[in-house]
C-alpha cells in the first residue's frame, strides 16, 4: 500500500492530473468564447439567412444539405487557442522549471545515425 501511495503522490502524476483538469476546463471556456463571439462574427459575413451561418447548400431548398463552414472554422480556432494556452501555461513553465533543476525537459538523445555508428565501432573493437 505504501508503494501505491508513493506512486500516486509522485510529482509527475499530480502535475498531469492538474494539467488535465485545467486543460479540460479551459477547452470549455475557449469553446464557449468561440461560439458566443466568433460564430456571430463569421455569420455576419454570410450572405444567406443568419440562422444557418457561414456556408452553402449542396441542394437548394433542402436545409439538411447545408455545409456549415463556420463550425469547421470554430473547431480550428478552438484547437489552436487551446494548444497555444496549454503551451504557454504548461510547457514553457515546465521547461523553465526543469532548466532550474539542471535537467532539460525535452532533451533529445543521440540520433539513430549516432547510435548506429556507436554500435558499429563497438563491434569493430570486439574483433
From TrEMBL:
GO terms for molecular function: mechanosensitive monoatomic ion channel activity. It holds the Pfam family MscL. The keyword Membrane applies. It is a multi-pass membrane protein. Its main location: membrane. Keywords: Membrane, Transmembrane, Transmembrane helix. It is found in: Membrane. GO terms for cellular component: membrane. The chain crosses the membrane at residues 12-30, 71-92. This is MscL family protein.
Amino acid at each position: 500500500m505504501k508503494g501505491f501511495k508513493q506512486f500516486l503522490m509522485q510529482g509527475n502524476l499530480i502535475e498531469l492530473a492538474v494539467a488535465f483538469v485545467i486543460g479540460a476546463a479551459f477547452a470549455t471556456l475557449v469553446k464557449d468564447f468561440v461560439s458566443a463571439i466568433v460564430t456571430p462574427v463569421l455569420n455576419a459575413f454570410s450572405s444567406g439567412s443568419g440562422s444557418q451561418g457561414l456556408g452553402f447548400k449542396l441542394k437548394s431548398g433542402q436545409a439538411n444539405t447545408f455545409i456549415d463552414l463556420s463550425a469547421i472554422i470554430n473547431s480550428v480556432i478552438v484547437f489552436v487557442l487551446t494548444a497555444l494556452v496549454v503551451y504557454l501555461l504548461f510547457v514553457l513553465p515546465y521547461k523553465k522549471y526543469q532548466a532550474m533543476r539542471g535537467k532539460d525537459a525535452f532533451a533529445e538523445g543521440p540520433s539513430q545515425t549516432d547510435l548506429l555508428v556507436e554500435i558499429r565501432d563497438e563491434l569493430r573493437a570486439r574483433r
